[in-house]
Amino acid sequence: MAQHLPRTVLTASAGIAAALGLTLTVTGPATASPGARTAAASTTVTPAGHAFGATLTGTATFSAGSVTVTCSASGASGTVPTAPANTNAAGPVSSAVSAPTYSSCTTSMPGVSATVTTTGNWSVAMQNGPTVTAGLTMPTAGFVLKTSGLASCTVTAAPTAAATVNGTWTNGAPSTLKFTDASVPVKVVGGFGCPTTATTSKFNATYKVTDTTDPTSAITVTG
Description:
The protein is mainly beta and 223 residues long. It has one domain. The strands form two sheets. Strands 2, 3, 5, 6, 7, 8, 9, 10, 11, 12, 13 and 14 form a twelve-stranded antiparallel β-sheet that branches. It has a three-stranded antiparallel β-sheet with strand order 4-1-15, with no helix packed on it. A hairpin with a 4-residue loop joins β12 and β13. It starts with a helix and ends with a strand.
């Protein structure tokens, strides 16, 4: 998220909730000594205290080998921290987000359908930088994909520990969060046709992130 279908879908979870989180590491100068630490950029997310929504634009695809699962609906929501918590002088700005939803999913395999269930507490860390990246953290087993039909499998993302999926953030009206081959650990169980040896899944999607408190405003990440 053939037979490899389940593992692909799992990557999606990382997909949404991430729509709200950003992570960036800034390396030190070329002249830095080998023992020098990397420095995190200053981050400010605005407008402080405003609610936001992340909505899929186009489709989200979860791929594993030659099998692809495509979902046409996905979303999540959250709230920018109130001041002064919406600013971090040397690191990311974190907040809780809703567990993302995925629906209207189809598979590249005839006779196989898929459903996705997300649960638990999700969070995102938003950080400014030359290239802003988005990191979404899902709880242990917070994303479960089940298939039925010719292949009956259960795929669990972040099976043993919380996991983070990364994407890139672009400020705009609305701002966008893009995931390109984002990877997440998975565990697959099931019978014939289930990719039980799969340990990771890839996710591709683009989300529009809008200010739901004030539609005329935009959620932005700056320094």
